[in-house]
Write a structure and sequence with these properties.
heterodimer; A: 286 residues; alpha/beta; three-stranded mixed beta sheet; 7 helices; 23% helix; globular; B: 1026 residues; alpha+beta; Acyl-CoA Binding Protein; PH-domain like; five-stranded mixed beta sheet; five-stranded antiparallel beta sheet; 38 helices; 23 strands; disordered N terminus; disordered C terminus; cytoplasm (chain B); Band 4.1-like protein 2 isoform X2 (chain B)
């Protein structure tokens, strides 16, 4: 036990990852905030396999892959179904009714990991994992169409060690649609007005001072930071082909092992890099 | 005579005097011998001697002399004493058995005997000191006097008053009248003197320590919080104590920090002297603490916080922290010793489960090798990361009436709704913190693009809660953000507001200080946390959480008002009914027993607080507090205490000098002395006995005027018209008043209260109300060097109404001394003239004193001290001085103003002006000592002189009229002082008034207060809807 979050040095530590295969129903039935080009399923699958491959192969995580469920077109976005912090996992109550059942499979897999499971049973509560930003020191919860106050409260009750601050999210699906952690104490943030405003809110609410990494594209601000013992700082970020300007910004992070990952297809249905995995740091086999 | 008196008083003071008869007998004999020798000379001389002898006698006076004097005095006094007073004397009388015999034989015999006896040799064995004193050549004059007096008096007592009378007649024909008065005064003095030793009452206070044990100690009733705190820290062997504090609970769930700079009893009022020792400022980084013992106490506090749920943490964290607790207390896990449910005896969490205990045990095994100190450190390293670590939560509602919590922490103010942080205001963002009534406001620095500051208001359950929150904010801001507590200069910029400031060391200072700690790590025993958990169950300590966790029983509306009203109602009722209150006290403080007994009217304001603009008192206070704490509180407090306790001294102590000289009071002081002396004669001295110096100097003046009146008028004017109520209370003999009453003086206290506030007061009772909670509205604007934020507080008090301006006028009137005795003018010119007892009119030029010119920083220490006075502890004053003088404080009728408070929504600007002032009420209370009329008013007299002097200070305007009259052969000096105390909310009128009276007394030690009139003008405001 390293203690609370293991301290700043432990942020990003990760041993396990939960992912889920994408169902074909995703192409047509997945929820999307805006109409657009249809998802190329084959390409989406390839991108996702690459994504999982990096986690498993390159980073050495134990990846637990759940089978797709055609009745749950959005099931690939496992992040929304659970929030895991240290030894505790909060099974969410997704804001979209059609997604509530995604939690069942998630519950099973998390139980297999012997995590302390907390379920959000309050019918007035909604919470999408995509609205939860854990900085290593505290939580920020975006209050969006998918996440409400009650959901945030339950999260706060679940993770009592940490401050949980709420951040209004208006123009985006999730809080993490335009931000994420790009390193310990480093917040990647998009350049849009909404993103900047949210950042300010977070800065005001926090007792800590975070560094920020501003990228031109909101979508590119969603990246995955990992601290892998053998590799140090690892950052999965959107490929230069997708967001060249933002990629240039990431490339300035000299201390990070940068791994560009394309996510063009899932992005069409509001999917981001973090959406597709739940990262878990198991320090004991209890 | 005078000298005798002086010496006598001293004697009485000495505990020894009262001592066993046996001891006294011998010495007495010795003294008698001396006396006898001299006695032959003296009877006639006595009077004269008195003037001449003064100083030396006092200085040298050994106990033996004193004793003699006492006896003499007592005798003389005894004649005049009313039966009830005689008892007291009895001891003095009883002592000299031998003497009695001698007396019976006759005075002459006595003389002979005395001669026969080898003067002191006999006595010596028993009393060395006395002997020595007697031996001294210096003593001669004194001895003579003493002896004379003793001879006279003693016989008189035993034989009967007749003898006394005879002697008296012989000695003093003219003076009889004076003597009578003197005697009366003496009597009173005696009473006082007897009481005085008792005054130092101790109270047993209990402090629940962090390990659950209790620490008990006896404290002087008037002790300040610091004293207790220091004792506790000493007991704990704790050096880094600035992080800690003492709590007392109100209603079991409202915790209040004991202000170290203020008297305990005023803060806790009627609450039991039960405190809990707690961490007040949680160090953000415990590893920076210097000593393990400090960390240990912090650990204990956190264990409580965690076990009680005040500091929430997750299951895993509970287990982890619990495991460190086990490691620290039990050492390495030992499978043989540690098995079964040994863990269950500990409480790690509010809801401790078997699962958790198993986890704890498991983790405990992993800590093998950690020393207790290391385990503590690990514990702290984890605990400090908890989001609620060091956050002091307060229930509140936002502008929309939604329940929220306000959390005060090292970094600023956090706003929670349920468990969620919905906003946060770092200290640098906050320009001003204030509270008004039950509302708490923060003024926010404009954001980058914004031009205007915004004020955000929160509604607290009641006024007290608002004030508590405000105080906590001020303290946290100061402690964590400032390098040193606010400096006086900065104070200037502060507007008006509560006096409250954090007076301790800041974190920066305490760190610096702890770097200097140079001692081997102190050994301390770690008590089992089992105890802690137990204590949590039953004790008040754990309770604090509840307040947070559960809703306040009180509605959002300010409940404070209710309480206040009750108090007032009670007080007023009494006043009106009886014309005087015998004990208002129950509600208030028991402290001043004397005063209360006498009559204390506590001014209570009806309703809630009236918003008041505050004077600069805050500033003053700052100075004081800072200095005190930073420097030597002890020394200052001593100073203060001395000051307050001391009755008028002939020679002003340092403090007085500072104060007076600059102000050019000297003359007055002299006058005053005379005046007071006249009446008091022996009595005074006794009272003053406390001050050794007095004996020498004052005696001279004693003779003068007999009757004096002190009018103390307190007026508070605030502008609007109001209702005037006049209450006249006669105080005849009530406890404190006795002196005055006995003397035959009347005291009238008139209270005119017009808008006001709680100020007045009751010296006695009032004190309670005043300090702790008086401030209704507080503003705190932190200026610091580095930081610009201003915190503003509005003071309020439940009881106090806000006052915008209070003017208190105190008038001292002295009146005609019936008989004048020759006085030796020490400094004052007038005195001498008057001596010609009879028809000489003495003109005393009045002089002004500026009590305080400007209390601001400018006045360095002086001001501080003044402030002390002003703000100061009424209690001291009350007991010693005030009681005699006055009596009165009456609850000013103030009406509650209702301020419409618009709950500040976010970003709503709230202007303080909101407070509507509706009405003003005026109240006048007059207390007169019964005899006053006869003496003073009897004849018109001839005006010899009159003077008026005015001095101003920020808060006080003092106008002194000194009039000398000759009436029917008696010169009378009357000093009338009008003191106008003006202030906004925060002024403690009671204290100010008490102070004024005290000062008056000090300045005119020889005079008595015959009349106190208090006018209070109070602004009344409308009542709030809520």
């Amino acid at each position: 036990m390293a203690g609370l979050g293991g301290g700043p040095g432990a942020f990003g530590r990760c041993t396990h990852a939960v992912v889920r295969a994408l169902p074909e129903s995703l192409c047509r039935q997945a929820l999307r905030s805006a109409a657009g080009p249809e998802v190329d399923f084959a390409r989406a699958e390839r991108e996702h396999q690459l994504y999982v491959g990096v986690l498993r192969g390159k980073l050495g995580l134990r990846v637990l892959e759940l089978p797709a469920d055609e009745s749950l077109p959005d099931c690939v976005f496992v992040e929304d179904a659970a929030v895991v912090c240290e030894e505790t996992a909060l099974l969410t109550r997704p804001g979209a009714p059609s997604r509530r059942k995604e939690v069942e499979a998630m519950k099973r897999v998390l139980e297999s990991l012997n995590l302390n499971i907390v379920e959000m049973v309050d019918e007035n509560a909604t919470l999408d994992g995509g609205d939860v930003l854990f900085t290593g020191r505290e939580f920020f919860v975006g209050l969006s169409k998918r996440t409400n106050q009650r959901g945030a409260e339950i999260l706060a009750d679940t993770f009592k060690d940490y401050a949980v601050s709420t951040v209004p999210v208006h123009d985006s699906l999730h809080l993490k649609s335009f931000c994420s952690m790009a390193g310990p104490n480093l917040i990647a943030i998009g350049s849009s007005e909404a993103a900047q405003k949210a950042l300010k809110t977070m800065q005001q609410m926090s007792d800590h001072r975070y560094d920020k990494l501003t990228v031109p594209d909101d979508a590119a601000a969603n990246c995955i930071y990992l601290n892998i013992p053998s590799k140090g700082h690892v950052l999965l970020h959107r490929a230069p082909e997708e967001y060249p300007e933002s990629a240039k910004v990431f490339e300035k992070l000299k201390d990070h092992m940068l791994i560009p990952i394309a996510n063009t297809e899932l992005e069409k249905v509001d999917g981001a890099l973090t959406c597709c995995s739940v990262l878990i740091n198991k320090t004991s086999e209890l | 005579m005078t000298t005798e008196v002086g010496s006598e008083t001293e004697v009485k003071k000495d505990p020894e005097q009262v001592g066993p008869d046996k001891a006294k007998d011998k010495p007495e004999e010795a003294s008698e011998t001396v006396e006898n020798e001299k006695s032959g000379k003296t009877s006639s001389e006595e009077a004269q001697d008195s003037s001449s002898v003064p100083a030396p006698a006092s200085h040298s006076s050994p106990s033996s002399q004193k004793k003699e004097k006492d006896s003499s005095e007592s005798k003389g006094i005894s004649r005049f004493l009313p039966p009830w007073l005689k008892k007291q004397k009895s001891y003095t009388l009883a002592e000299p058995k031998d003497e009695a015999k001698k007396r019976a034989a006759g005075e002459e015999q006595v003389v002979e005997e005395s001669e026969c006896h080898p003067p002191e040799g006999m006595a010596q064995p028993k009393r060395i000191l006395e002997v020595v004193a007697e031996n001294n050549a210096k003593a001669d004059d004194k001895e003579e006097k003493h002896s004379v007096s003793s001879a006279e008096t003693q016989p008189a007592k035993e034989d009967g008053k007749e003898t006394e009378v005879e002697k008296v007649a012989e000695e003093k024909e003219e003076k009889q009248e004076k003597e009578k008065r003197e005697t009366k005064e003496v009597q009173t003095a005696e009473v006082i003197s007897q009481k005085s030793p008792k005054k130092i009452k101790t109270v047993q206070s209990k402090v629940v320590l962090l390990d659950g044990t209790e620490y008990t100690c006896d404290l002087e009733k008037r002790a300040k919080g610091q004293i207790l705190f220091d004792k506790v820290c000493e007991h704990l062997n704790l050096l880094e104590k600035d992080y800690f504090g003492l709590l007392f609970y109100e209603n079991s769930d409202q915790k209040n920090w004991l202000d170290p700079s203020k008297e305990i009893k005023r803060q806790i009022r009627s609450l039991p002297w039960l405190f809990t020792f707690n961490v007040k400022f949680y160090p953000p980084d415990p590893s920076q603490l210097t000593e393990d013992i400090t960390r240990y106490f912090l650990c204990l506090q956190l264990r409580q916080d965690i076990a009680s749920g005040r500091l929430p943490c997750s299951f895993v964290t509970h287990a982890l922290l619990g495991s460190y607790i086990l490691q620290a207390e039990m050492g390495d896990h030992d499978p043989e010793e540690h098995h079964g449910d040994y863990i269950s005896e500990f409480q790690f969490a509010p809801n401790q489960t078997q699962e958790m205990e198993e986890k704890v045990a498991e983790l405990h095994k992993t800590h093998r090798g950690l020393t207790p100190a290391q385990a503590d450190s690990q514990f702290l390293e984890n605990a400090k990361r908890l989001s609620m670590y060091g956050v002091d939560l307060h229930h509140a509602k936002d502008s929309e009436g939604v329940d929220i919590m306000l959390g005060v922490c090292a970094n600023g103010l956090l706003i929670y709704k349920d468990r969620l942080r919905i906003n946060r205001f770092a200290w640098p963002k906050i320009l001003k913190i204030s509270y008004k009534r039950s509302n708490f406001y923060i003024k926010i620095r404009p954001a980058e693009l914004e031009q205007f500051e915004s004020t955000i208001g929160f509604k607290l359950p009641n006024h007290r809660a608002a004030k508590r929150l405000w105080k906590v904010c001020v303290e946290h801001h100061t402690f964590f953000r400032l390098l040193s507590p606010e400096q006086p200069p900065k104070a200037k910029f502060l507007t008006l507001g509560s006096k409250f400031r954090y007076s301790g060391r800041t974190q920066a200072q305490t760190r610096q200080a702890s770097n200097l700690i140079d001692r081997p790590a102190p050994y301390f025993e770690r008590t089992s946390s089992k105890r802690v958990s137990r204590s949590l169950d039953g004790a008040p300590m754990g309770i604090s959480d509840q307040s947070l966790l559960r809703d306040f029983p009180t509605t959002g509306r300010p409940s404070a008002g209710d309480k206040i009203i009750d108090l007032e109602a009670a007080g007023q009722g009494k006043l009106k009914e009886g014309g005087r209150e015998d004990d208002v006290s129950p509600l208030k403080t028991p402290q001043l027993e004397l005063t209360q007994d006498g009559k204390s009217n506590s001014l209570r304001v009806d309703g809630e607080n009236i918003y008041v603009r505050h004077s600069n008192l805050m500033l003053e206070d700052l100075d004081k507090t800072q200095d005190d704490l930073l420097k030597h509180q002890a020394s200052i407090s001593e100073l203060k205490r001395n000051f307050m306790e001391s009755t008028p001294e002939p020679r002003p102590n340092e403090w007085e000098k500072r104060r007076i000289t600059p102000l050019s009071l000297q003359t007055q002081g002299k006058k005053g002395d005379h005046i007071f002396q006249v009446k008091t004669l022996p009595g005074k001295e006794k009272q003053w006995t406390a001050m050794p110096r007095i004996a020498g100097t004052k005696p001279e003046e004693i003779d003068k005027s007999s009757h004096e009146t002190l009018d103390i008028v307190e007026e508070k004017k605030q502008a609007e018209v109001g209702i005037e109520e006049t209450l006249v209370v006669d105080e005849t003999d009530k406890g404190k008043m006795q002196v005055a009453a006995d003397a035959g003086e009347t005291c009238k206290v008139e209270h005119l209260s017009k808008k006001d506030s709680s100020s007045l007061p009751s010296y006695s009772s009032s004190s309670s109300s005043s300090e702790s909670e008086d401030e209704e509205v507080g503003e705190y604007q932190p200026h610091h060097r580095a930081i610009e934020e201003v915190i503003r507080e509005e003071q309020e008090e439940e009881e106090d109404v806000k006052r915008r301006e209070l003017e208190e006028k105190i008038q001292h009137v002295e009146d005609t001394p019936q008989s004048s005795k020759p006085t030796v003018p020490v400094e004052s010119m007038q005195v001498t003239a008057e001596d010609s007892v009879q028809e000489n009119a003495i003109i005393i030029p009045t002089e002004e004193k500026n009590l305080s010119e400007e209390i601001k920083e400018d006045l360095g220490e002086e001001k501080e001290e003044e402030q002390l006075k002003l703000n100061g502890d009424v209690s001291h004053v009350d007991i010693d001085v005030a009681p005699e003088i006055i009596c009165c404080s009456e609850p000013p009728v103030v009406k509650t103003e209702m301020v419409t408070i618009s709950d500040a929504t976010q970003r709503t600007e709230i202007s303080t002006k909101e407070v509507p002032i509706v009405q003003t009420e005026t109240k006048t209370i007059t207390y007169e000592s019964p005899q006053f009329d006869g003496s003073a008013d009897g004849s018109a007299g001839v005006l010899l002189s009159a003077q008026t002097i005015t001095s101003e200070s920020i808060s006080t305007t003092t106008t002194t009229h000194i009039t000398k009259m000759v009436k029917g052969g008696v010169s009378e000096t009357r000093i009338e002082k009008r003191i106008v105390i003006t202030g906004d909310g925060d002024i403690d009128h009671d204290e100010a008034l008490a102070q004024a009276i005290k000062e008056a007394k000090e300045q005119h030690p020889d005079m008595s207060v015959t009349r106190v009139v208090v006018h209070k003008e109070t602004e009344l405001a409308e009542e709030d809807e809520d």
